[in-house]
Amino acid sequence: MLTYLALAERAKIKIEEYRSRTEGTLDRTESTFSFTRISVRVELRSPEPERAEALLQVAKKHCIISNSLKVPISLESAALV
């Protein structure tokens, strides 16, 4: 979220509302438990919904947290006016 909001500010995209929900699947491996899937669902409201939604992919690419994880992260989004 912080990466996204910083990029939106830099791109001068007004974000009126941002909500996200994250779910993960935890599975047992040979010696421990690990996340095998993480899914992030983002809903946002902006006067420029297409630009705001496209910026989510840029934020995902540059997110420090998701880049630190071993598991793939899926991103679903809905941008509203």
Helix content: 25-40%
Average pLDDT score: 93
**Number of domain units:** 1
Q: Quick one: overall form?
A: elongated
CATH topology: GMP Synthetase, Chain A, domain 3
Structural class: alpha+beta
Mind telling me the CATH superfamily name?
K homology (KH) domain
The ordered H/E elements are HEEHHE
CATH architecture: 2-Layer Sandwich
The main sheet comes to: 3 strands, mixed
- Order of adjacent strands in the largest pleated sheet: 1-2-3
Describe this structure in words.
With 81 residues, the chain is α+β, with helices and mostly antiparallel strands. It has one domain (2-80): 2-Layer Sandwich (GMP Synthetase, Chain A, domain 3). It is 35% helix and 41% strand. It is built from three helices and three strands. It has helices at 2-10, 49-62, 64-68, and strands spanning 17-28, 33-45, 73-80. A three-stranded mixed sheet has the order 1-2-3. Helix 1 packs across helix 2 (49-62). The longest helix has 14 residues, at 49-62. The chain is elongated, with a radius of gyration of 14 Å. The model has no long low-confidence stretch (mean pLDDT 93).
Structure in a nutshell:
The protein has helices spanning 2-10, 49-62, 64-68; strands spanning 17-28, 33-45, 73-80.
